[in-house]
Amino acid sequence: MADRVLLRYWTITDYEEEEQFLREMHREGWKLQKFWIPGIYFFDKCIPQDVVYRLDFGQAEKGMKMEYLALYRDFGWEYLFDVNGFSYFRKPAGAEEEDMEIFSDNESRIEMVSRVFKYRMIPLLLIFFICVIPQICIQSFFWVERGSVYARGFTIAFSILAFLYLCLFVHCGKKIHRLRKKYQKK
User: Measured between alpha carbons, how far is 115 from 98 in angstroms, rounded to an integer?
Assistant: First the structure.
């Protein structure tokens, strides 16, 4: 059983902020034990230490997971677990900042951002346009035609869902754009 449980929400593009949060927790004496979606972190009490956490998204191809993990292990990274397509790694902070990165170059970082977009954002957009928008249109039609209380309720619920989706798309889209620019400049 974990000594401390925290609830934190990050979007798929906030992985750098999540890495920093985990590093700060370890500095305070809380080592990440596990993570459950929708943002429940389980920590064990430990000796405060500067430990770097890194996340990698969807890198290991099917049947290649063992080789993928061995590569990280060879560079001193401890594999923790996978959650929602992200692999979690950690390693004690060293003197060289280059040793604290899991990516060898900025092209690799840009590739990861592209994988996040391709495997997470595009499916969300499809769900939005195939499921949410048509439901708003259908429910709006019944609301106008019959004046049904249920149709009004569903229209309002799907409109709120559409608004939340749009906020998520704008946030993640801006973040993906900023990350790509940041890594292209380095």
Answer: 23
In eight-state DSSP terms, residue 117 is: I
Q: What is the pLDDT of residues 114-165, one digit of tens each?
A: 777 787 778 878 887 787 777 767 666 665 566 667 667 777 777 888 888 8
Q: How confident is the model at residue 24, as a pLDDT?
A: 97
Delimit the domains of the chain by residue range.
4-100, 106-185
Residue 177 sits at the vertex; the CA angle it makes with 14 and 10, to the nearest 5 degrees, is 15
CA 90, CA 98: separation in Å to the nearest integer? 14
Q: How far apart are the first and last CA of the chain?
A: 42
Taking the C-alpha atoms of residue 132 and residue 77, their distance in angstroms, rounded to an integer, is 41
Longest dimension (CA), the chain: 70
Q: What is the reported pLDDT for 46? A: 95
The amino acid present at 99, given as its one-letter code, is D
- Name the stretches of the chain with pLDDT < 50: none
Neighbouring C-beta atoms of residue 156, cutoff 10 Å: 13
Report pLDDT for 141: 62
The alpha helices in the chain, defined as continuous H runs, are 15-27, 65-74, 106-116, 122-127, 133-146, 149-185
Distance from C-alpha of 156 to C-alpha of 170, rounded to nearest angstrom: 21
Residue 96, pLDDT score: 61
Angle at 177 between CA 173 and CA 179, to 5 degrees: 115
Q: Are strands 78-83 and 40-45 parallel, antiparallel or unpaired?
A: unpaired
